[in-house]
Amino acid sequence: MAEIILTIVVEVVKCVAPPAYRRICYLRKSKYTSNLQNLKTEVDNLKSERVRTEHQVDEAKRKGEEIEENVGNWLGRANNVIEASPAITLSLMKLALRNILSELEDPDVDMLGIYGMGGIGKTMLAEEIARKVKSDKLFDQVVFVEVSQNQDIRKIQGEIADKLGLKFHEESESGRANSLFKRIKAEKKILVILDNIWENLDLRVVGIPHGDGHKGCKVLLTARSLDVLSGKMDSRPNFSIGVLNEEEAWNLFKKMAGDYIEGSEFQSVARDVAKECAGLPVSVVTIARALRNKRLFEWKDALEQLRRPYATNFKDIQPTAYKAIELSYNKLAGEELKNIFLLIGYTAISSIDALLMCGMGLGLFQGVNKMEVARARVRTLVHKLKASCMLLDRISKSEEFFSMHDVVRDVAISIASTEQIALTATNEQVDGFRVWSDESAVKRYTSIVLQDIKTNVLPEVVECPQLKLLFIRADKESSSLTIPNNFFKRMIQVRVINLTYMNLLSLPSTLGFLLNLRALSLCYCKLVDISVIGGLKELEILCLRGSDIKQLPTEVGQLTWLTLLDLRECRKLEVIPPNVLSNLSHLEELYISCRSFQKWEVEVEGVKNASVEELKHLPNLTSLELDIHDVNTLPRGLFLEKLEKYRIRIGDWYWESTNIWRREFRLRLKNKICLKDWLIVQLQGIEDLELRELQEQDVNYFANELAKVGSSELKFLRIRGCSDALNPPAESKV
């Protein structure tokens, strides 16, 4: 175990601290017992080196000297090691990690598993294994994917494909599986880690070859139950994870709460609090973070709360873990943060965008009425929840995404249910109308969340006078779920409706009665006629992302209070009537991506489509994502100067999208157009600029314009002319 952590420390220290590197290399030859104590010493040395380097950087900045990039990189890596090494050391100390690595090298083993109770550290161990086999080059590729309780085959396929650089061109699940199968077969040695398995997952349906299908592909699973691994997945061998011992738990607790608790008036009560966590890492971390920098009486109160007997409705959660997470929830600062935590928990929201839409629709952000201000608030709240260890970063995702530990989520759902905030159910619970049977209870809830619904189980009408939020997600492969016409009749207070993967060829007429509705999301739904939404005069957010709608109705132009319109991935959208967009005078954010509408100014079935020129008449527009294939439809002047952020791509080209938002402008011309004669582009403020296949005079034009406005905000620049059309663009980082 010490060798694993030493490897992390070595990689940080050796580049700038040769003496420390030599000391650590010596430790590799020592016995593990002495290494553990020596490791603590070396981490302390690294802390001292970090402080000394930070002082040198501060002094250089005061003198106006430029700081080399590798210095900043070293500090960042040092911080990561100092933060991560104690937690990793403690959570893995009793584990047979070397045995797992040995099994991965055994040619007769193609699938193995790790199991243990929720919050025990399975994911942390799997991540450490991924890091170790990468550093030791045991596999050519390592792919880590979270499966979760609500199994989503397309999502799993997409995550694996992203890690392997594979782009799907198939729509069907089987077609994607075939492409993924071939891509994985192309790797000589590959490890696929499937984290958090709850039930049987057919690897053939996903597109993962293993065993005789591909001897070079090995699969590592994590689950709470041995039965899932050995019985349903036929995984052999499988390794059990136990809890931390008392001293390991105390060391981790000190790290998360702060070393100040040792040798002070806090030590006695802090030790007792740590004991109550029963060796569960998730309990230790959340409690320690919640009590960090709290006063002594708050520590004593927390201890009393943890000692009270408690029963939970979740059979897989230990009462100790439940009480610890509930206490951490109670310690969150302010009702706004608590509400956001519960909302993320019971809706399973995992992105800043989705949380923004939902939070704004519910009016959770007091005094905030601008989308960009709200977005900053959402990011701040998510950051606070991560700092409290109540949220996690998504692996290999940008800061726009986050996740919640499944044990933490279960507690959030329980709290929301107990406080009669949210009623949540899956297909099995909804089937047979069981979820609707207690009408008096349904009336009291302010949120209803139904996940992975497979059959038409919605009642004709449901009495929900207090309802503010309705989430219904149909099962992807059974998206025939429809909504009865009178379903919304008695939900007059609802403010947010989110329907996903549903068959809504014609929206129920009663939807038009919801005069308090502020946010409507119809993502990945089958849509034909949505004209009824014209009656939703107070609607502020409309998301049709991924839906198969063909024509945006003129009634959308009546939604004059709309602040956000999302039409990304609407592949079949062919008609946007004139003056619909320009009527949305309060619109602040508009998203129309490359896989969506392209027929600007084109006549379709007797209707001439809208012009890009209309966007210039939206006085409040601050965020824009827009792809235009036909450069001839561009207006004179692209009004970029008034936008806070944008992603604009022009030309017949498939542009790779990123999750990183910046002021991005990309242009590709395929015909003999002299750009400067008819297009004026405001270059000031652009952060990412790419120009392809331009005429020489156009390249010169842009170069001159850049010289005029300066490049203080430009971070990436790519320019090439027609002669380079077949070559990859040269990229400069400014």
Brief summary:
The protein has 734 residues and is an alpha/beta fold.
Walk me through this protein's architecture.
There is one protein chain. The strands form five sheets. Strands 8-9-10-11-13-15-16-17-20-21-22-23-24-25 form a 14-stranded mixed beta sheet, sandwiched between helices. α23 (696-709) links the parallel β23 and β24 (716-721). The longest helix is centred in the first third of the chain and has 31 residues, at 32-62. α1 packs antiparallel against α2 (18-27), α2 packs antiparallel against α3 (32-62) and α7 runs parallel beside α8. By secondary structure, it is α/β, with parallel strands linked by helices. The chain has 23 helices and 25 strands. Among the domains are: 1-84, no CATH class; 91-240, Rossmann fold (3-Layer(aba) Sandwich), CATH 3.40.50; 335-404; 629-733, no CATH class. The model is unreliable at 1-39, 84-93 and 723-730 (pLDDT under 50). Helix content is 37%, strand content 15%. It holds the Pfam family LRR_14. This is AAA+ ATPase domain-containing protein. InterPro entries: AAA+_ATPase (IPR003593), Apaf_helical (IPR042197), LRR_dom_sf (IPR032675), LRR_R13L4/SHOC2-like (IPR055414), NB-ARC (IPR002182), P-loop_NTPase (IPR027417), Plant_NBS-LRR (IPR050905). Residues 29-70 form a coiled coil. Residues 108-247 form the AAA+ ATPase domain.
Lateral strand order in the biggest sheet: 8-9-10-11-13-15-16-17-20-21-22-23-24-25
Per CATH, the architecture of one domain is 3-Layer(aba) Sandwich
| Beta-strand segment tally | 25
pLDDT average, as an integer? 80
CATH topology of one domain: Rossmann fold
Give the structural class. alpha/beta
Q: Give the N-terminus to C-terminus distance in angstroms.
A: 42 Å
Task: Count every helix, treating DSSP H or I runs of 4 or more residues as helices.
Answer: 23
